[in-house]
């Protein structure tokens, strides 16, 4: 899968990266230029005949952007146009709260901690002079504000956001074990994942830390 096919958050195949089907694309006001990637929401259908009895609640993870459709009015087709809050849910997720044939239903929602298992995961790409890390399975707020990388022969190097939940550093880091420092966008808490990738790390592989936000 090429980098351009990894979606607006960079998570790629949502099954192989552990997000499954309880996912949603966010309208741009929630997507927040990619800083909304990985955030989690409880959603329930309300006030519509298509809502299932008992108003079941589902928790979804934000994994993509629902782009604006400026050719359509925001109340008839342009559901993701600013300043609307909209969740474009996967079909399996939608079917847990309402009749799929309704297409659009009103919902109540709230941010919640992300129910992840295990440590933060880093999918590494790049070359000898450029490291690109896709950050996945982030607990707590689920989102990332800033990130740093440290090779076994370097100090901490500030990484810049590439797109979505991917961060890059223009440094020679081959042949060094890699540690990452991540700052949560929601809480500004910082966590250090030491020696996540061994010195013989390779691009295209995913490495899991032993730490995560809670």
Automatic annotation (TrEMBL):
Domain Expansin-like EG45: 6-119
Residues in Expansin-like CBD domain copies: 129-209
Subcellular location(s) per record: Secreted, Cell wall; Membrane
GO cellular component: extracellular region; membrane
Pfam families per record: DPBB_1, Expansin_C
Cross-referenced InterPro entries: Expan_Lol_pI (IPR007118), Expansin (IPR002963), Expansin/allergen_DPBB_dom (IPR007112), Expansin_CBD (IPR007117), Expansin_CBD_sf (IPR036749), RlpA-like_DPBB (IPR009009), RlpA-like_sf (IPR036908)
GO biological process: plant-type cell wall organization
UniProt superkingdom: Eukaryota
Keywords, ordered alphabetically: Cell wall, Cell wall biogenesis/degradation, Membrane, Secreted, Signal
Membership in a protein family: Belongs to the expansin family. Expansin A subfamily.
Function: Causes loosening and extension of plant cell walls by disrupting non-covalent bonding between cellulose microfibrils and matrix glucans. No enzymatic activity has been found.
Protein name, as recorded: Expansin
């Amino acid at each position: 899968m090429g980098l351009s096919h990894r979606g607006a958050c960079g998570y790629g195949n949502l099954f192989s990266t552990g997000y499954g089907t309880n996912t949603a694309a966010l309208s741009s006001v929630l997507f927040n230029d990619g800083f909304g990637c990985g955030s989690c929401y409880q959603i329930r259908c309300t006030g519509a005949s298509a809502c299932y009895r008992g108003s079941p609640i589902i928790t979804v993870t934000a994994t993509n952007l629902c782009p604006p459709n400026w050719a359509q009015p925001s109340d008839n087709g342009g559901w993701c146009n600013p300043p609307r809050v909209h969740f474009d849910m996967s079909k399996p997720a939608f079917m847990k709260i309402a009749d799929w044939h309704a297409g659009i239903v009103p919902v109540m929602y709230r941010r919640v901690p992300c129910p992840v298992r295990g440590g933060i995961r880093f999918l590494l790409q790049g070359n000898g002079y450029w490291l690109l890390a896709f950050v996945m399975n982030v607990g707590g707020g689920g989102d990332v504000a800033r990130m740093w990388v440290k090779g076994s022969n370097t100090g901490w190097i500030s990484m810049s956001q590439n797109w979505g939940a991917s961060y890059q550093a223009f440094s020679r880091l081959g042949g060094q074990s890699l540690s990452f420092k991540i700052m949560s966008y929601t809480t500004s808490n910082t966590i250090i994942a030491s020696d996540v990738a061994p010195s013989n790390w390779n691009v295209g592989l995913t490495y899991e830390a032993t730490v995560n936000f809670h």
